[in-house]
């Protein structure tokens, strides 16, 4: 329930803070006093769009803050889902800066307007004659039936199933589309795949083959230079090996005489060891140099195959060819396994559909059970509200279509006159009739589910006498189950409130402001008397006001 509302610098309001209580609260005031401003401010903190025109003083920011007791609304999961701190007394705040920028907060955490709008539907329900057109919306009609049928958990389960079914259908559609596209290229892809697979590609093969071929193409130069290098190294008279041996012998003889000679001798020995090792490798390399024309031809053939494949696929390496091979393998495999995959997906769809059908049947059966009582209660209430001949025709028709809330089509028709034809509410009911129908619907709902705070904005316009008394009585009964706030011009309704607030204008320093105050018993008598007789309050009006309050 709404526990308090604070408004600063909004429209005609400088500063206003008011506390609300449970039960039935009444708001009255002269036309133009600012009742719509209060609703506008409340709408702002609940997520309505705003602009600079909302600011009374455009040099200061506008702040609207509402405190709402939410312990009975089962909102902990929602708060966790949107990552907000849950508090039993939750504070909603909206700020509009002079720059026009708007900010919103829930328990001091910044939020976007979509979060406020989601909370709005669960916290405060505002109804005016304009908003009673919601009665003609089939989703609202279904929500009434489902609320009475206690279908909340079943509908939630069904919706999860529909989401799963839609995902599976989309996956099947994508599989079938992909299969059609791939089938068109399957033969060509299979040819390309087989060609690459038969080539037995190795990642580093090309570089190795090119190196071997380079050696074979220069075999004569290699052989000549290796031979000459060996001759230079091992010639008995002038070879490097023999010269190093002589040098080592000479230095070894003087090494004992000085540390300096010892170090030079050791370095020459190291060089000789390295040279001996190199000469050994030169001898091995020279012995292994053979020209094999067949090997060169085979390498040339293999390299040409690789070059042709790379040119065909517009790449420059075996690594890229192997990537293409993997992609082609997936495409070929997809076609070869497509039927099995598609059939498996169809089985999943069939399984989910069967489960959904069972849930939809339960939802439909529950709806049908409550229709008779709903019709009876609505017609009885409307009769008390001056619509003695009001009749409803509510029918459920099962279909094969998976709608968002079940598989039913709903026919919700109305007739206001005896012997009249049934028709859609928006076509056959007047604005005043829709207001009373909405009141009756909300009355029935309030006795079956936990409704949020409801605000009736002059929903009793155009009625008087005994009907207004009955409207007041219905609101009083509803207030036993929920918080009800009624903005009214009818004294009969105003007298039934547990609390009575008055909206009024006041001029201070030639500036008009809107104010709201909770009336005392004496002030309330005067207000109701004024509603009965106008500004000139008579003793009769005061007496009547006291009678109404009693």
TrEMBL record:
<feature type="coiled-coil region">
    <location>
        <begin position="155"/>
        <end position="222"/>
    </location>
</feature>
<comment type="similarity">
    <text>Belongs to the RecN family.</text>
</comment>
<dbReference type="InterPro" id="IPR004604">
    <property type="entry name" value="DNA_recomb/repair_RecN"/>
</dbReference>
<keyword id="KW-0227">DNA damage</keyword>
<keyword id="KW-0547">Nucleotide-binding</keyword>
<protein>
    <recommendedName>
        <fullName>DNA repair protein RecN</fullName>
    </recommendedName>
</protein>
<feature type="coiled-coil region">
    <location>
        <begin position="335"/>
        <end position="391"/>
    </location>
</feature>
<dbReference type="InterPro" id="IPR027417">
    <property type="entry name" value="P-loop_NTPase"/>
</dbReference>
<keyword id="KW-0234">DNA repair</keyword>
<keyword id="KW-0067">ATP-binding</keyword>
<keyword id="KW-0175">Coiled coil</keyword>
<dbReference type="Pfam" id="PF13476">
    <property type="entry name" value="AAA_23"/>
</dbReference>
<dbReference type="InterPro" id="IPR038729">
    <property type="entry name" value="Rad50/SbcC_AAA"/>
</dbReference>
<comment type="function">
    <text>May be involved in recombinational repair of damaged DNA.</text>
</comment>
<feature type="domain" description="Rad50/SbcC-type AAA">
    <location>
        <begin position="4"/>
        <end position="220"/>
    </location>
</feature>
